[in-house]
Design goal:
12 helices; alpha/beta; seven-stranded mixed β-sheet; 2 domains; Aspartate Aminotransferase, domain 1; binds 4'-deoxy-4'-aminopyridoxal-5'-phosphate; Aspartate Aminotransferase, domain 2
């Protein structure tokens, strides 16, 4: 037969996630770490990879890595689960807590993957938009959860792409107000140093997401994890792919995690550069920069697509959100190395000078 019947109907309204990657000499679009894994850690990784058995299946649950993460967070193995990037665990929450006849509460603008996964699993999406300054409309969220039909929520803290932490008092109020599963996405935790970890014991409905992709320079390896109560973790285990975290990734992530102190200097540099970038952007009259607790900065510029193009023509790739809902005229720049940030600022200033002349 030279035809194929249509796929599942809900795919019709979906398009694949697109990180909008384009080649450039200065990559400031994907919130990656500008510093690769430190040399001494790379040497240790290479040493361990040399003795690996590629013919054997990996430990399905990556228990060696789970134990290390648990210990560092004062938890037990059953409170931790690793995934093929945070992305896999974001898919798993939609599989386990979403589905037809179930409801997800989203606080846009935020990481678009949350809503995409909900739609993919046939989950109803209730959007409670953020305020104009991108803070969460806390009263509106609390009022909406009081209706009792929300099955899960995801709050990114710091939020991507807007940059700021959620208020801790609000998150605690939310956890008290609902029995929905509340995922606090702490993908950028190491740059904000704020975590909901202390509240796991009191709140069975709290689960925390973290990743190795940002602070630990492993975006290319795909390793994320959740911290949660054991009964929540058990449900995630039921829906996950058995061998989603391959043996190479487990080995690399273990070496990196054991040596995580080596990443500290890079993290501090990113935090310092973030302050410098916000200060410099704030001096430009055409730009409104939003303060950030993460490794990126959202900024608004009239005619954002032409600013994006101007930067790209000069070899600098930033992320254009100007076509997205709630993000008119917004671009997001990842905090790069000091040299990359200098280059970004210099070219941006040049573009603005040329625009003033035109
Ligand atoms: N959460 C947020 C808020 C993110 O920005 C990202 C990465 N863009 C992720 C989760 C997932 O990261 P990864 O799959 O690389 O672990």
């Amino acid at each position: 037969m030279n035809s194929v019947r249509p796929s599942c109907e809900r795919l019709d309204a979906l398009s694949p996630y697109d990180p909008k990657y384009l080649p450039a000499t200065c990559l400031l679009s994907a919130n990656e770490n500008p510093h690769d894994v430190p040399k001494e850690v790379r040497t240790e990784i290479n040493r361990r990879l040399k003795t690996m058995s590629f013919n054997r299946y990996p430990d399905p649950l990556a228990n060696g890595l789970r134990d290390k993460i648990a210990e560092a967070n004062g938890l037990e193995r059953e409170n931790v689960l690793v995934g093929n990037g945070g992305d896999e665990l974001l898919f798993n929450i939609a599989l386990a807590w979403g589905g037809p006849d179930r409801t997800f509460l989203n606080v846009p603008p935020t990481f678009s993957v949350y809503e995409q996964n909900a739609r993919l699993t046939g989950t109803r999406v209730v959007n409670v938009a953020r305020r104009e300054d991108y803070t969460i409309d806390e009263d509106a969220v609390l009022t909406r959860v009081a209706e009792g039909d929300i099955d899960y929520l995801i709050v990114a803290s710091p939020n991507n792409p807007t940059g700021k932490l959620a208020d801790e008092g609000f998150l605690l109020e939310l956890l008290d107000a609902t029995d929905a599963l509340v995922m606090v996405d702490e993908a950028y935790f190491e740059f904000s140093r704020m975590t909901m970890r202390p509240y796991l014991a009191q709140h069975r409905n709290l689960v925390i997401l973290r990743t190795f992709s940002k602070a630990f320079s492993l975006a290319g390896v795909r390793l994320g994890y959740i911290l949660g109560n054991a009964d929540v973790i058990t449900q995630f285990i039921k829906v996950r792919q058995p061998y989603s975290v391959d043996a190479v990734s487990q080995t690399i992530a273990e070496a990196v995690y054991e040596n995580r102190a080596s990443f500290e200097r890079g993290i501090v540099s990113i935090i310092e550069e973030r302050t410098r970038l916000v200060d410099e952007l704030s001096k430009l009259p055409e730009i409104k920069a939003y303060p950030s607790d993460a490794n990126y900065i959202l900024f608004r510029a009239e005619g954002a697509p032409s600013v994006w193009q101007g930067l790209y023509d000069r070899g600098i790739l930033v992320r254009d959100f100007s076509g997205a809902e709630h993000l008119t005229d917004c671009l997001r720049v990842t905090v790069g190395s000091p040299d990359e940030n200098d280059r970004f600022l210099m070219e941006l200033k040049q573009i603005l000078i040329e625009r003033r002349r035109a």
